[in-house]
Model the fold of this input.
Amino acid sequence: MQTQNLGNIVLRGYGTVLSDGSEQKKGMFEQTISFESGEQVGCYETDGTWILDYQSGMSLLVLYDAQNTQTFYLDRSVALHPCVRFSIIPLRNTCTVSFFLPNDTPAEPVAFVRTESLYAYLPQMECEKLYTFFYQESARDFYFRGERHEPYEMVYVDKGKLHNVVNGQDYLLEQQDLMIIGRNDWHIQYADNTVSFLTISFSMKNAIPPCIINRKLTLPPKLKATISLMLQERDNQSLYSYDYLESLLRILLIELMRALHSEEQAHEPKLTLPSTACEENRIVDTAVQIISQRIRKKMTLEELASSVHVSVSYLYRIFNSYIGMPPGKYIARIRLEECKTLLREGELSMGDIAKTMGFSSAQHFSKQFRRYFGITPTEYVKSLR
Done:
């Protein structure tokens, strides 16, 4: 359904449009609220007659009932009947609306609705800037030690297999798999064999729906054709080449959303995650960053737990829950991947690598390396020649 203009006929059953509203507002409690774009939208329910009056920005009024959802452009004062459920959504980044309430109890959302469920009404998929667009062909044992940044990052595997470790969780992307890494999400990449992949970093005017963030997606043939067009345009220096790439990216995102929307609506709850789950995810994310940044220094689990202000037992539990392995095993894996990088660089001896990476001896390093990779460090170096 398209956004409608406010009018008494279309509002029938929900409320009325006020020509002025000043008289009706007398004696009512005024609460002015600023709304921002985000992954969820607060849903309010009137406990009497409420008057809504826009103040700044471009606002949408979303009204819910058992059968459908209706959306109106809020550019006039509206008096809503009792027991009406509604949301306010900014058309751009922010908007401000005044609520006039029958008593002095401030309005609070009674539920939260995922923004993606309302995307049919909003111009969401608008690229703000395309930062990087490069195709990488990496040799075996590729390893990128990790970073985080404000733009989104899209990774598409053209050939081979690539591990994407995002917020501590390892995703194996195979040929024609794609992942969009969320803003400021810590990510590491590595591959055991040769791999070719496309990386695009970009920003959006509005947040990308969370259902396609940090998720392994296998592209259908229709979207594979879009990727092919993007690769063809990569080396094209023609007029409007940047705009064309940006348009193809937008098409790709829209098609991904259309393909997943029905599935997500059917299987995922619309209410927000409990605050404890969000906090646990933040702790794991922070711990993973600390591990990556300090991987060449010896660090105990007690020190790691202290760095994120939790107990060792709690850290152990949430690592198992979110990453699928205890923190000690995760540290060992990342440390050995870093050892591979040092071996490929060839600037340090086995003993120096063992000392740099916190192993008690070269023998201990060799034993752990073989246990994890199936070959000794010496055999690994020979295999690179």
In short: The chain has a mean pLDDT of 84. Residues 169 and 367 are 26 Å apart (CA to CA). Residues 4-121 form a domain with the Jelly Rolls fold (CATH 2.60.120.10). The first helix runs from residue 22 to 25.
